[in-house]
Amino acid sequence: MRWGVVTFPGSLDDHDALYAIDHVLGQTAIPLWHKERDLHGVDCVVLPGGFSYGDYLRCGALARFAPVMESVAGFARDGGLVFGICNGFQVLCEAGLLPGVLTRNRNLSFVCEYVHVRVESAATAFTRACGPGEILTLPIKHGEGCYVASEATLREIEEEGQVLLRYADAGGRVTEAANPNGSLHNIAGVMNRQRNVFGLMPHPEHAVEKALGGEDGLKLFRSIAASVAAGHTESVASVAPGP
Amino acid sequence: MDEPQVTAALAAEHGLNEDEYRRIVAAIGRIPTYVELGIFSVMWSEHCSYKSSRRWLRELPTTGPRVLQGPGENAGAMDIGDGLAAVFKIESHNHPSYVEPYQGAATGVGGIMRDVFTMGARPIANLDSLRFGAIDHPRTGYLVHGVVGGIGGYGNCIGVPTVGGDMYFDAGYNENILVNAFTLGIVRADRIFRASATGVGNPVIYVGSKTGRDGIHGASLLASAEFGDGTEHKRPTVQVGDPFTEKLLLEACLELMERDAIVAIQDMGAAGLTSSSVEMAARGETGIRLDLDRVPLREEGMTPYEILLSESQERMLIVAKAGSEDVVREVFAKWDLDAAIIGEVTDDRMIRIVFRGQEVACLPLEPLAEGAPKYERPAAASAEAEARQILNLDHVALPGDYNRALLGLLDSPNIASRQWVYRQYDHLVRGNTVVQPGSDAAVVRVKGTHKALALSVDCNSRYCLLDPYVGAMIAVVESARNVVCAGAVPLGISDCLNFGNPEKPAIMWQFVEAVHGIRDACNALGVPVVSGNVSFYNETEGRAIPPTPTIAMVGLMDDVTRHTTQWFKGEGDVIVLLGRTREELGGSEYLAQQGILTGTPPWIDLQVETHVHAVCTRAIQDGLVRSAHDCSEGGLAVALAECCLSGSVRGELGAVVELEGAIRPDALLFGESQSRIIVSLRRQHLGRLRELAERHETPFTVLGEVRGHRLTIGSLIDLTLKEMRQVWETALPRRLGAA
């Protein structure tokens, strides 16, 4: 399969996503430039971490207007897989491709550390290589990762099984102490209702090698690869909503 | 244009003394214009000219088979094999960070990164060495939050990981904090860019942010004078950083460097357009003519004086190959940045500035650069220097409770866990961080090779105040020991020499002693100084900081899989001390906690030190040891506690240790004798390690075993890991509040 990794001005983890896909996963990854609309026929678009346009306004607020985002929105409408990491998650929320919004961390400061997240549903295109309820250890590094949504939206995404990752402790308990940024419902990652757009605050591309903080992130990349190999629309259709 | 009349008095306001003003008039044969006076004042400032330090810096070893670029360029470069070079430098941003901590620290980080990518290297790691006043001083909390926030704000946003650093609190920095920022980058060894303007007729191109009125006279007035009353009023001389623009500038510069368009390139840092153009022309032995009407400006009505002296950030000056102007424009347009041709290289060894069709400055390069004043200032130890060394241990009572003494040290802001700081920094981006913050040295791999680089910054200024020669030696060897503990061989250093007012003989004496200490330690270790920075005038109303010659050490390891960390790895491993513990308490954190600040720093025998390094390096390369940790502040007891407590896996491994020695028990536990490393290893390797130590004449003591969930040291110490962790991890957040 072919992956595309978008570079906005101010994208920082684009190289790391390319490296994870190319060097570690062994698949083809091509850079996509924010000024271009052509997605070069990729099977999955990755929106990487960073501070697009400096994020001097709200995070992701400017990136959504980049020419490439028009194509990404169309690609998502047509059922293409879109995977937003950290700033990419923020961009997807700002672009209306994902519900909710990410605000300043509860303690107001940037935090870089490893956290545990619980996989809420393994029956999706993004998590199929994980076990249900599996605990992944992934790093976070953000100042604005506090997931917020209206009561109605929260209810809806919970009912529809759109919450894919939740901050938890090592034993899988979803607790206040395990919540690094104040996210509502400890939400670390959500997907859209059509189940083909997924955003998360942790950085799976920084957990792909044993020598550098573990390999749990690979499971998400492998899930996407397996879904594309299986023709992901089919897998999406066959999945019942989660708990 | 109405310009002030140039007189000796106006020159004095620019920081030039009467004699210097006379020399300027003599050198150019007339009274300088106002603009020219501005140019001289920055070029002859201590910050740019190194006029008080140059004579001494020449004594440092700066050459070696791996040195590709020594001091004198934007940064130093060393050959690391595989056709690659490590480019690195440390630089101070002290005064601005005290006046405006967030922006001061942020632009310090931005400035040092530009110095590195100017050489063509992609920055892959940052370190920061910080010194604050007493932690309970009313201003300290504000300064720590500002500085740490600024470092994170800039570094996190540009995508270069901050992988380590050091931090001390001492009342000697109450009114003058230190922010020393270090960057390391990687470049192809045959593709290092330098800053020598050659090729008459080549265009001089300005790239990056527009020029504004910020930072005018940062170098001359802020960095080259003592603080007095009204420090707050100097806030306008502090620059404002924009890491987003710097990220674009970084990518655009590196992309342009692939295109064979650049002859020379230099950051517009201190003294902005003036120093970058003068220094490039001086190195190239050419000349430069600049047309200020073409400089991209942020505000209207800027005068030539302001344009030349602005220290607006995120700007570079490029000398391009004639004919490649369009390539430069194309690359910078892609990254939405300004690129303006503002002048050309000439052959008259002059710097000529044109504004609105008129030549407003026309100065020979020689007196501006090489011909700047050089002083051999008087140096003499003060009477206090000798008094400081007096310490009679007979008057120091032994602690009644050694457990409490150890907990007290783990609670010290100088020893406690630094997690409060480094969790605010992205230390992972670019995916090379093999050893994250929290061990003796950070380790970053070099992609495309099997190699890695170990990085450490170090300086115990308490030692340096007691004896600047010994203290500086210790700074070098301890930073070397740190990278050795990580499994690397010391490669080279960059030094950041922070001192008070050099016009005072007592300060100059500290400086000369410290330079000699660095010289002798570097010679003993075979490690060159390839870059660095001198920061004088860290002094407020006559109160100088303790001498702080900060050393940033870079070590090279050929096989990244052989790296080692400081924390214990497995139950049942044997704990061994390499090196000897003497009855030394002078300058220790232990005595400082009792308010005793006199004495002599620990003894240092450079030959013994190199032997200990040899044993540790070989043991790691042969896979004999599983952890290695330098013994430093807080001595053996604190080092053992750190072996138990640190580590990303939240090591829950305790230790049972027996200590023997015919010295005071407090010195045995908390003394800071040098040249000591604690290693842990599987019992089966003990014989081979002992043999290795004997071969290198290194003292070897089996201390005990990794076991359980307590730290027990003979009959003196018995603490659970939990109670130690509680103190060690909360010491900073408890005092500094939420991050």
Q: Biggest interface pair, residues each?
A: A-B, 32 and 36 residues
What's the tally of helices of chain B?
26
Largest sheet geometry of chain A: 9 strands, mixed
Profile the largest sheet of chain B. 7 strands, mixed
Distance between the termini of chain B: 50 Å
Structural class of chain A: alpha/beta
Distance between the termini of chain A: 31 Å
Verbal overview:
The complex is a heterodimer of chains A (243) and B (739). Chain A is of the alpha/beta class and 243 residues long. Chain A contains six helices and eleven strands. In chain A, helix 5 crosses helix 6 (232-238). The longest helix of chain A has 13 residues, at 218-230. Chain A is globular, with a radius of gyration of 16 Å. The model of chain A is unreliable at 234-243 (pLDDT under 50). A seven-stranded mixed β-sheet of chain B has the order 8-10-7-11-9-12-13. Chain B has a seven-stranded mixed β-sheet with strand order 23-25-22-26-24-27-28, sandwiched between helices. With 739 residues, chain B is α+β, with helices and mostly antiparallel strands. The longest helix of chain B is centred in the last third of the chain and has 21 residues, at 505-525. Classes of the chains: A alpha/beta (243), B alpha+beta (739).
Itemize the secondary structure elements and their pairings:
The complex is a heterodimer of chains A (243) and B (739).
Chain A: E1 2-7, H1 14-25, E2 28-33, E3 44-47, H2 67-77, E4 81-85, H3 87-94, E5 101-103, E6 111-119, E7 135-142, E8 146-148, H4 151-159, E9 163-168, E10 187-191, E11 197-200, H5 218-230, H6 232-238
Parallel strand pairs in A: 1-2, 1-3, 3-4, 4-11
Antiparallel strand pairs in A: 5-8, 6-7, 6-9, 9-10, 10-11
Chain B: H1 8-13, H2 18-28, H3 34-43, H4 46-49, H5 54-57, E1 67-69, E2 76-81, E3 84-92, H6 94-99, H7 101-117, E4 122-132, H8 140-158, E5 162-169, E6 178-188, E7 203-208, H9 218-222, H10 243-256, E8 262-267, H11 272-284, E9 287-291, H12 304-309, E10 315-320, H13 325-334, E11 338-346, E12 350-355, E13 358-364, H14 365-368, H15 383-387, H16 402-410, H17 419-422, E14 433-435, E15 442-445, E16 452-458, H18 461-466, H19 468-486, E17 489-498, H20 505-525, E18 529-535, E19 539-540, E20 543-544, E21 548-557, E22 574-578, H21 589-593, H22 606-621, E23 625-630, H23 635-645, E24 655-657, H24 665-670, E25 677-681, H25 686-695, E26 700-706, E27 710-713, E28 717-720, H26 721-736
Parallel strand pairs in B: 4-5, 9-12, 17-18, 24-27
Antiparallel strand pairs in B: 1-2, 2-3, 3-6, 4-6, 7-10, 7-11, 8-10, 9-11, 12-13, 14-15, 15-16, 16-21, 17-21, 19-20, 22-25, 22-26, 23-25, 24-26, 27-28
Helix pairs in contact in B: 7-8, 7-10, 8-10, 10-13, 19-20, 19-22
